[in-house]
């Protein structure tokens, strides 16, 4: 199966639903023992076990709280990637758990632990409610992607498929900025009364002649 989604909460369901609605089969797992995938997903979203997703999917999206993702990839799952793609959508700074110390990011820790995977940090700067991207007045919503080159290609493809404009943010160390940026977006969203409906749009802000 092409895409596997770990986490059937707001983010995982939004991505699974959007891909499933195109007719492509998506494997979905809630990651918490005993709970099934979210209700109301299209038929193309198939309930899978953790093991089926880790071993059978070309691309796996981590859409669980950061500590849960970290616990998963620190185990055997982190060593079974065979060079497949792991997309980390987590935001340690926004989780209820203890934030990470300065100078390190969740994306880097995930990449270090999931050493058998190509890891990309992506989808952490977009709101679940904004998946798929359907920007007002046709304004494209940019989706920064950082990480290993091979994984970035897969993350770019998934982002485009969901209507986003992927932008290259560099290597996995850029997860530090992407995770901080997600916190900043949440703060601006709160102070601006946007209720999470906030997104990044990348465009030239200075006329060509000024460059
Ligand atoms: N929501 C957003 O707009 C958004 C945007 C960008 C990034 N993210 C990131 O995406 C990730 C998921 O966020 P979310 O909003 O989708 O969260 P959520 O709605 O709370 O869903 C979390 C998912 O993780 C599972 N889970 C929770 N605790 C678990 C545990 N101890 N063991 C195993 N599985 C567990 C939940 O399982 P159950 O269904 O059994 O509870 C659920 O499927 C987070 O890292 C978040 O920072 C979210």
TrEMBL record:
Q: Which Pfam family is an annotated match for this chain, by its short name?
A: F420_oxidored
SUPFAM superfamilies, alphabetized: NAD(P)-binding Rossmann-fold domains
Per its UniProt entry, which superkingdom is the organism in? Bacteria
Which residue numbers delimit the Pyrroline-5-carboxylate reductase catalytic N-terminal domain?
Answer: 3-92
The record, for InterPro entries, names: NAD(P)-bd_dom_sf, P5C_Rdtase_cat_N
Provide the protein name. Answer: Pyrroline-5-carboxylate reductase catalytic N-terminal domain-containing protein
């Amino acid at each position: 199966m092409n895409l596997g989604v770990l986490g059937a909460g707001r983010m995982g369901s939004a991505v699974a639903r959007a891909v499933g609605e195109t007719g492509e089969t998506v494997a979905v797992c809630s990651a918490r023992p005993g709970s099934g995938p979210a209700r109301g997903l299209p038929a193309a979203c198939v309930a899978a076990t953790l093991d089926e997703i880790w071993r059978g999917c070309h691309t796996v999206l981590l859409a669980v709280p950061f500590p849960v993702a970290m616990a998963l990839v620190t185990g055997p799952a982190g060593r079974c990637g065979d060079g497949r793609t792991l997309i980390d959508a987590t935001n340690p700074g926004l989780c209820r758990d203890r934030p990470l110390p300065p100078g390190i990011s969740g994306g880097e820790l995930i990449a270090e632990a999931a050493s058998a995977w190509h890891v990309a940090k992506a989808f952490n700067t977009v709101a679940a409610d904004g998946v798929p991207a359907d920007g007002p007045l046709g304004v494209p919503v940019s989706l920064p992607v950082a990480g290993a080159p091979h994984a970035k290609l897969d993350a770019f493809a998934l982002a485009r498929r969901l209507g986003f404009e992927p932008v290259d943010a560099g290597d996995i160390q850029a997860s530090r900025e992407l995770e901080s940026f997600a916190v900043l977006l949440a703060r601006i969203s709160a102070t601006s009364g946007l209720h999470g409906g906030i997104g990044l749009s990348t465009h030239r802000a200075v006329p060509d002649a000024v460059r």
